[in-house]
Amino acid sequence: WEWLWDWLSQSMKQQLETAGSSHSLIQMAWDMTLDTMPEDELGGVIFDTLSELAPNIASVVTSPRQMVAIKFIEMINTIVALSSAKRGGELWKQIPAIAARHIRHGVQVHHANIVGQVLETVMVEALQDEWTEEIADAWGRHWDLVCSALFAEMALWQSHSEPACSLWKRAARKWSPPVLGYAVLAKLSKSLPDLVSSYAVAWAA
Q1: What spatial distance separates the first Cα and last Cα of the chain, rounded to whole Å?
Q2: In the chain, N or C: fewer CB atoms in 10 Å?
């Protein structure tokens, strides 16, 4: 039993060290990138790079460039923070609301790879020789992890959309929109307050 316990202890220690190391690399790389230029300028560079590499995606953005730039920085700050956050913790619990917001803006699953490439392109350009294989590996694994969680939630939201729309149309034939809306909100607020809160956060953003 002693050898088994020693092996398990070493394995757990190695996993914790790897996780901590990955977080440090992710945070360090992002901090160094932020040091190269002001945040709003960096966000603008990310958007311009997206426009260059994927004009079909950038063309659907209707918000002003400055606002989009700020949103990009906020998004990446959240992704970086998730690298050190406990899975199942408060920060990870925001993923469903973020997923709802992405659906609202028409984000598709295949956009993740493109945005990931855009971000890496910008960071490589900003960091030059300081962008290492270790940083690239840590960023890639974390990006995939976050995207997997995000798109799993998006799939869950979308799986309920068709039956929900069908029921809504049937109910709308009976009640006026304001009456129906208030009735649904009142019912959900009592039975599923967390769901109502997540909707409020998603649609307010």
Answers
A1: 54
A2: N
